[in-house]
Amino acid sequence: MAHLLETLEETLEDVDQSNDTPSHEPLFHVVLLNDDFHTDVYVVEMLGHLFFIPPGLAFRHAVEVDTTGRTVILTCEQPQAEYARDQIHAFGADPRIKACSGSMSAIVEPAPK
Prior knowledge:
It contains four helices and three strands, in the order H-E-H-H-E-H-E. By secondary structure, the chain is of the alpha+beta class. It has one domain: CATH 3.30.1390.10. A three-stranded antiparallel sheet has the order 2-1-3. Helix 2 (40-51) packs across helix 3 (55-68). The radius of gyration is 22 Å and the shape is elongated. The protein starts with a helix and ends with a strand. 19% of the residues are buried. The mean pLDDT is 89.
């Protein structure tokens, strides 16, 4: 019985030590960049379709990207951020603007800690 208690205490100490410093993957922002070839309606539709962002919030993103040149769409781990960026790049042109030849641009950048 004493040996079992010693083993249990050692196991609990190992678990306690391993939980002292939780490790988290670094986070990244997916940033939508402004251009002159996509309408606010396009932004709202794209964000709703790709990320299920409600129209009101999507419109706020559209206004922000239009006025500041960029807007952070989401923050997540790097593989998911790169996938989200690729989805934006693949969404296609805005049919409302004849001069529009493709999707909007987005970048992935490290989120501040």
